[in-house]
Amino acid sequence: MPSLLRSGILEVIEREDLTHRVILPAHKEGRHLETVVGRIPDWVDGIVVVGDASTDDTLQVA
User: Fold this and answer.
1) Gap between the Cα atoms of 23 and 13, Å rounded
2) Cα angle for residues 24, 26, 29 (degrees, 5° grid)
3) Which of 18, 13, 12 is nearest to 43 (CA)?
4) Which end of the chain is more exposed for a tag (fewer CB within 10 A), N or C?
5) DSSP strand E in the chain: where?
């Protein structure tokens, strides 16, 4: 990864006004969703669960 930073491909931005969101695609993930969301770091400001016509309880768990 450091070589990418040196080449200018990646840029590290440190700004306090930025927020962090996780977009979580979920198709038939009802039984795993709580575990996955529980592993998301505390510094994340929001979680967006994108349902994909699941036939299980993904929507209700989300």
Assistant:
1) 20
2) 125
3) 18
4) N
5) 21-26, 46-51
